[in-house]
């Protein structure tokens, strides 16, 4: 006889903000990863992966990205930079970028250049101030149209800014096109976020994991 199935009951009112987000992040999967590139007021380049990301409509061409707080309660550098310039670039996270996802996800100081950390090169955009990632197989240049404040203010995993932006330009490699000139997911090899440190790729890697380290641990490896 098969073992009888049991059920775990989850009451959000009895859980912390981190526990609530953790559950959503484990069940709402896989999520596409927007590798967002921005530039700060001081000219420092920033890259960060964000998986609370979705297309909204095609006319106008709108996307939404949920930008929360850092673990220390401060605003994310991506959000501050995007506010300053009014724009950002969504670099589609393909398998060729996957090994550096957790490196650019580190909560590093504002002065850190994630392009240098990941070994990527920046490229000038056509319509926006923020640069793109040359190694990305597709890039969406976005201008902010609306910001909706949601969640519990001042609380990590609570407060978020739902940034609605219009795609004003798209660039993609012809290497991701099939014989009919259509974008082929098997050639794009997009990577999605699963739970914990797990990811899934439409390419050869399938389901894989990447360990995340702290900023201090990262610096110690650079010093070795």
Separate helix tally: 6
Rg is 18 Å
Overall outline = globular
CATH architecture verdict: Roll
Count of distinct strands: 13
Strand order of the largest sheet: 3-2-6-9-10-5-4
Mean pLDDT: 94
Indicate the percent of residues in helices.
10-25%
CATH-defined topology = Pnp Oxidase, Chain A
Strand content: 25-35%
Q: Could you explain how this protein is built, in words?
A:
Helix content is 19%, strand content 33%. It is α+β, with helices and mostly antiparallel strands and 224 residues long. It has one domain: Pnp Oxidase, Chain A (Roll), CATH 2.30.110. The chain has a 7-stranded antiparallel beta sheet with strand order 3-2-6-9-10-5-4. A 4-stranded antiparallel beta sheet has the order 1-11-12-13, with no helix packed on it. A hairpin with a 5-residue loop joins strand 12 (198-201) and strand 13. The model has no long low-confidence stretch (mean pLDDT 94).
Brief sketch in words of this structure:
The protein has 224 residues and is of the alpha+beta class.
Key structural traits:
4-stranded antiparallel beta sheet, 33% strand, 224 residues, Pnp Oxidase, Chain A, 6 helices, globular
SSE topology sketch:
Blueprint: H1 17-27, E1 31-32, E2 34-39, E3 45-50, E4 53-58, E5 61-68, H2 77-85, E6 87-92, H3 101-104, H4 114-118, E7 122-123, E8 132-133, E9 138-150, E10 160-172, H5 185-188, E11 191-193, E12 198-201, E13 207-209, H6 215-223
Antiparallel strand pairs: 1-11, 2-3, 2-6, 4-5, 5-10, 6-9, 7-8, 9-10, 11-12, 12-13
């Amino acid at each position: 006889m098969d073992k009888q199935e049991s059920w775990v009951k989850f009451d959000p009112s009895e859980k912390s903000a981190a526990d609530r987000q953790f559950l959503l992040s484990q069940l709402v999967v896989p999520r596409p990863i927007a590798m967002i590139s921005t530039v700060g007021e001081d000219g420092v380049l920033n890259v960060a992966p964000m998986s609370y990301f979705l297309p909204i409509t095609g006319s106008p061409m709108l996307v939404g990205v949920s930008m929360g707080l850092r673990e220390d309660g401060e605003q994310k550098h991506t959000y501050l930079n995007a506010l300053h310039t009014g724009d950002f670039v969504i670099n589609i996270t393909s398998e060729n970028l996957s090994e550096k996802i957790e490196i650019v996800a580190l909560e590093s100081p504002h002065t850190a250049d994630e392009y240098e950390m990941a070994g990527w090169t920046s490229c000038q955009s056509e319509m926006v101030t923020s640069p793109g990632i040359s190694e990305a197989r597709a890039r969406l240049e976005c201008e902010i149209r609306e910001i909706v404040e949601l969640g519990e203010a001042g609380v990590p995993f609570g407060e978020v800014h739902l940034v609605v932006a219009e795609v004003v330009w798209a660039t993609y490699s012809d290497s991701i096109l099939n014989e009919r000139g259509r974008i082929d997911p098997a050639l794009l090899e997009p990577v999605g976020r699963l739970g914990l440190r797990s990811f899934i790729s439409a390419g050869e890697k399938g389901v894989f994991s990447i360990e995340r380290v702290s900023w201090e641990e990262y610096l110690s490896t650079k010093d070795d």
